[in-house]
Amino acid sequence: MLRSNEQCSYSKKKEWDYIYDQKNLHDKEKVYLKGKDKIVPPFRFGVEDVATKMWFHKLAYPGQCLTNSHLDIIFYYLRKKGKYAKEPKTESHWILGRLNIEERRVYMYNSLSTAMKDSAAIKACQPFAVLLPHFFALFDEFKKENKPVCLDPFEVVKVDGLPQQTSNDCGCFVASFAEYFIDMKPIPPIFDVEKHRDRLAVLFYKYARMKEVEFIDSEDEAPPKGPKKNLS
After folding, report:
1. I need a surface site. Which of 10, 47, 67, 182 has the fewest CB within 10 A?
2. CB-based burial of residue 80 (10 Å sphere; 0-12 exposed, 13-18 middle, 19+ buried)?
3. Do residues 73 and 144 both lie within one domain?
4. pLDDT score at 163
């Protein structure tokens, strides 16, 4: 599994020297010299292969929208972390939904909170709030918990007091919100997005290198399915 901040800071400069062989940091889409963007062999994560350094560049630098690949891989390992701990377009926006079955609520975490954005985010959560009780009833989850079967929609509740993004960093905010919850830590009101992006990029880069060089694998990592097509 991923290592802590302190462990992953080891030889960080050397790792970034490898990642950032750049010609123009100001051009977000044309960062690397021709032929310098490839990672051969690709880094194998649990759900997808990463074959370009640009994947890490987008993860590390503030103001860049994370793709489906980033969130798929991040949440794959966040799910693993929770278990063992007890490419959207520019106009797309990531939010986090947290289900509390006991309270019959879906808590909505939005890092871009305005009246209009919150309304749209709550609307996006509503289909899940309606369908989840039916799925739980279908698979007898209510009976397993000794609860009466109730098909009423779950309540969607907006979480207030969250740090807010100032650029296209919603994916990083969502991943960090989820990790704070898994670690049972309060979400701080001040959020250093550059620090969090840097940490995520270093963690995944170091872990991929360990898997490649030291043949380290988590015991339940599924074989990669190959790159996914971005359907957004």
Report:
1. 10
2. middle
3. no
4. 93
